[in-house]
Known about the structure:
Blueprint: H1 12-18, E1 26-34, H2 41-48, E2 55-60, E3 62-63, E4 70-76, E5 82-86, E6 89-94, E7 97-99, E8 103-104, H3 110-126, E9 135-142, H4 154-161, E10 169-174, E11 185-192, E12 197-199, E13 214-217, E14 220-223, H5 242-259, E15 269-274, H6 286-292, E16 297-302, E17 305-306, E18 313-319
Parallel strand pairs: 1-2, 9-10, 15-16
Antiparallel strand pairs: 1-4, 3-16, 5-6, 6-7, 7-11, 8-11, 9-11, 10-17, 12-13, 13-14, 14-18, 15-18
InterPro entries: RutC-like_sf (IPR035959), YjgF/YER057c/UK114 (IPR006175)
Protein name: Enamine deaminase RidA (YjgF/YER057c/UK114 family)
Amino acid sequence: MYLPAVAGYPALPGALVQAGLAIGDIVHLTEYVTGAGPDLVPARSIALGGHRVPVSRVPVEAVVGRDDPYILGVSAHPGGGTLLAADGDALRVADGIVYLPSVHTTEGDFREQYRCCLDRIAALLDLAGLTPAALTRTIDYTATATRAEYPRCGRPRKEVLGTGPVHPGAAGILVDRPVEPGAQVSLDALAALGPLTAINPGWARYDTLTYKPAVRAGDKIFFSGFGALDPVTQLALHDGDLPAQAEYIYASIETVLAAAGASGTAVTSLIEYVTPGAAADYPRTAELRAKHFPNAAVTSVVCSALLRPEFMLETIPACF
């Protein structure tokens, strides 16, 4: 279960109770932190009370429509799954999903850091007896200043993830405050046990990329991030019109769902990254979102920018 965004660690127990869960059921936490960012280690330690979980830290510009200094993205499963721990790292495996902490480094140039992050993910997966072929989704966080260098991550992805035919879903989000000074890349990932199947409604652009529109693992579907991009012409659409971009994005997601034999009601979570210039208009997308994905828990944050300058919104759905 992916909970609606939680307004900090003091609110975590109540949010879990409302969902019929407890602290021991948490399998992953994402800390979306604004500004300079508070030190969340003490609050996290108090809230978890010794329960170890993988944690991802994501710097953001703001939380959409709220003044909270940070919010939590919470994934939980009754019983908390299985803990795998070594050298201070913690993974959890629950209902066939492998939850990992985010990784980063401060050594090397952009491509070297990206490769280091992928290698670190591979080492973490080894704790579960898996290889990078088990990855179902990656989200990388890089700075606007490195946008021109971003294509350089293609080579290390091919070297570590292989040539397919199955690759994870992927998203790239621009955040101008690094998770640590000197870190040009931060990488978040999910994996799954068992065989994976790529889901592609026939979009040829993905034939040469190291990610797919979506990946199925059993009864679960993991998606890439979706922006208002024509998959045939690769042109960005509806420049300056957030509701139109949102409608296009949601329709694209439903196209992929249809290829998987599913519909929007199957989507259980949406993570939405909104650009600063689009944040004021974001409430106008609420009705569209509810129409397409009525069962989804939504987390909405303001990023620094998106990889295509025309994009105002990137949406990452999941069905599990």
